[in-house]
Amino acid sequence: MDAASSVARVKRIQAAFRVLALLQMTAIYFPKQAIVQDGASYSFIIVGGGSAGCVLANRLSEDSRFNVLLIEAGGDPPLESKLPGLMGYIPETSQDWNYTEQYDKNRDIYQSNHTLPLTQGRMLGGGSSANYMFYVRGNFHDYNSWAHAVGDPTWDYEHVLPYFKKSEHMDDPGILSSKYRRFHGTSGYLHVTKQPHQEASEYLNMFHELGYKILLDVNGNEQLGYGEPSFTIAEGVRQSTAYSFLRPVKDRQNLHVLKHTLVTKILFDKFKNAIGVEALTEDGKLIKIIVEKEVIVTAGGFNSPKLLMLSGIGPKEHLGSLGIKVTSDLPVGQNLQDHPAALVAYKFKKASAPLQPQNYGMLPAVTMAGYVALNKSQMYPDYQSICFHIPNDSSAAITLCSFNFALDYNTCQAIYEAGKGREVLLCVQNLLNPKSRGKIELRSTDPTDQPLIFLRTYTEEEDLEKMEKAFKKLDEIRSSKYFKAVAGEIVDHRLPRCKGMVFGTREYWRCHVLSTKMTMYHYSGACGMGRGRVVDPRLRVYGVNRLRVADSSTMHSVPSGNINAPVIMIAEKAADMIKKDNCI
Predict the structure, then answer these.
(1) Co-location of 342 and 327 in the same domain
(2) Is the pLDDT of residue 12 over 80?
(3) Backbone angles phi, psi at 234, to 5 degrees
(4) CATH number of the domain that residue 60 is part of
(5) Are 365 and 466 within one domain?
(6) Which of 478, 498, 519 finishes a domain?
(7) This model's pTM is above 0.85
(8) How far apart are CA 98 and CA 78, in angstroms?
(9) How far is CA 45 from CA 39, 51, 217, 303, in A?
(10) How far is residue 484's CA from residue 476's CA, in Å, rounded to a whole number?
(11) Is residue 86 part of a domain?
(12) So what's the pLDDT on residue 22?
């Protein structure tokens, strides 16, 4: 198999799933389509039914006195979203916003300007219906830093931990019988489990030999070390917030879900009160919907800032250049953050085991995750390593590399060929606390146009230096007893720009990082919280009334790990703040 054939195969399978989608096999799990007339009124309007929006819809509709409307641009998650083993088939479909990064000089030089896809879920559950299902909260340092930066102690780790626990239903017996039990909830909507594999033990022993702690749980009181992750998977089903928070309450009479509808503008009165939204329905009608209490924007890392700017909330100069009347001059779209990533592969022991049929109720690869501080005295990690164990002769690596990570086909081909008769460890390294900041701008005043997204990865030299050190640190596995015992080898990644460089040098690793650059899809910060930013510590938008944002875009800084769990925490906390501020 070659990389081009692998991508073509994915496209054929996606076409088959599109046909299956016509049967609406998953519709029974989710609320029915609401019938909303032009001029209809609701107590709360939630814009965006993603990771945060589904949580808020559940929590705000707990009080039957209030009618809650959740508006989602996509529809119900399809079968390939429900089954964890099919997660790789969601990008570049109608369930993906299909956004891409604008021109990046480094990507042009090192990857021939191959477009970087910025996958984001366009369906109920949003990112939680499209992600890799890691349940990672981050580090206590993240939230203590937020609290200090925004001047509100209720955002510190001690105060947000109860919200993590509130949403969680930890099912793993090992964690529940361990010292980590006190950090977890067992009565929330979001089921969380582990998927331990015997194949991981040899590799974890290798990391232990190199001096790393082997952790049962990175969501307790320590995060530095390696282990098998927790996932938002239970009984073979992806626990998206659509499945976990909407499904159990789908028949609530005061919960209304309007799907396949794009909110185009937030409406304000002359006193700058949010009074409703303008929305484009599936049949092309533009309707106005009135709100009695608040509009809550949970449209995600890109679409929340986009909607605010279309509604006149954003940088005065940028909005003025498009002829948009400014309601509140705020740095919307600035301070965009992400976890930049790159990969490396190693050949391990020879093997000839026959390929096993895939269990679609589990992830398609055995996975380990490590959190490492470059400074030994530091209590929080600088980078995360996600290492996939690829069995001999498997096509998983070439598909992941060429289609999902959108890397150069020659590199992906090299990794695939390295796995012929050998086990491969494919590790994605990502920088957890980047200094570089990107931005989001409007392309036009047309709400159906994609925004302009500039990640600006590695514009701060310190970020590239840390990534170079992260790869050099991981490469210590070549000195381990296990690596030597199985005659392990580094894979020749066939990186044209790195040809002739001495492997292992600073120059080589910098080139390697830039040549395999990709994203972790952790877009955040463009409607940031705190003084001089977009929302206050109660997530209310500065300069207007009755409008909040409550998703990853409000993060003051991106947490030290995958962001789905922190987004759910933000939504849980937002729900309580909204109830209190509205005397509910």
Answers:
(1) no
(2) yes
(3) -150, 130
(4) 3.50.50.60
(5) yes
(6) 519
(7) yes
(8) 17
(9) 13, 16, 37, 16
(10) 12
(11) yes
(12) 87
Are 352 and 475 within one domain?
yes
CA 62 vs CA 68, 250, 390: distances in Å: 10, 12, 45
Indicate whether 547 pLDDT > 90: yes
- Give 233-301 as a DSSP string: EETTEE--HIIIIIGGGTT-TTEEEE-S-EEEEEEE-TT-BEEEEEEE-TTS-EEEEEEEEEEEE---T
Split at pLDDT 50, 70, 90, the class of 545 is very high
Residue with tokens 């002739």: 500
Parent domain of 124: 3-131+239-335+524-581
Q: What is the b/e burial string over 331-360, where b = at least 16 CB atoms within 10 angstroms of the residue's CB?
A: bbbbbbbbbbbbbbbbbbeeeeeeeeeeeb
What burial letters (b/e) apply to 110-149, b meaning 16+ CB within 10 Å? bbeeeebbbbbbbbbbbbbbbbbbbbbbbbbbbbbbbbeb
Share of the chain above pLDDT 90, in %: 93
Give the pLDDT confidence of 472-511 residue by residue, as tens digits.
999 999 999 999 999 999 999 999 999 999 999 999 999 9
Contacts (Cβ under 8 Å, ≥6 apart) of 268:
274, 275, 311, 312, 327, 544
Residue 180 lies in a domain: no
The residue with tokens 């409307």 is 69
| Structural domain total, the chain | 2
Task: Give the pLDDT of residue 583.
Answer: 81
DSSP secondary structure code for residue 34 in this structure: P
d(CA 267, CA 307): 11
The span from the CA of 564 to the CA of 557, in Å, is 14
CATH number at residue 403: 3.30.560.10
Q: Quick one: 279 and 420 in the same domain?
A: no
pLDDT, one tens digit per residue, over 379-420 is 999 999 999 999 999 999 999 999 999 999 999 999 999 999
pLDDT beyond 80 at 463:
yes
Neighbours of 380 (CB within 10 A): 19
Q: In 72-138, which ranges are E strands? A: 99-100, 117-118
Which of 85 and 115 is assigned the larger pLDDT? Answer: 85
| Residue 123 domain-assigned (yes or no) | yes
Read off the amino acid at residue 193. Answer: T
The amino acid occupying position 133 is: M
| Domain contains 25 | yes
Query: Which residues are catalytic, by number?
Result: 522
Q: Which helix (H) or strand (E) holds 430?
A: strand 422-431
Q: What is the mean pLDDT of residues 312-333?
A: 98
- If asked whether residues 462 and 394 sit together in one domain, one would say yes
Cβ 333 vs Cβ 479: under 8 Å:
no
pLDDT given at position 112: 84
What's the pLDDT tens digit per position in 331-361? 999 999 999 999 999 999 999 888 888 888 9
Claim to verify: residue 356 and residue 485 sit in the same structural domain = yes
DSSP state of 109: H
CA torsion through residues 135, 404, 127, 79, sign: negative
**Tokens in use for 319?**
């909005």
| Contact yes or no for 296/55 (Cβ under 8 A) | no
Do 353 and 468 belong to one domain? yes
- For the segment 85-108, the average pLDDT, to the nearest whole number, is 94
Average pLDDT for 113-118? 86
Considering the domain architecture, whether residues 389 and 330 belong to the same structural domain is answered as no
Among 471, 497, 519, the domain boundary falls at 519
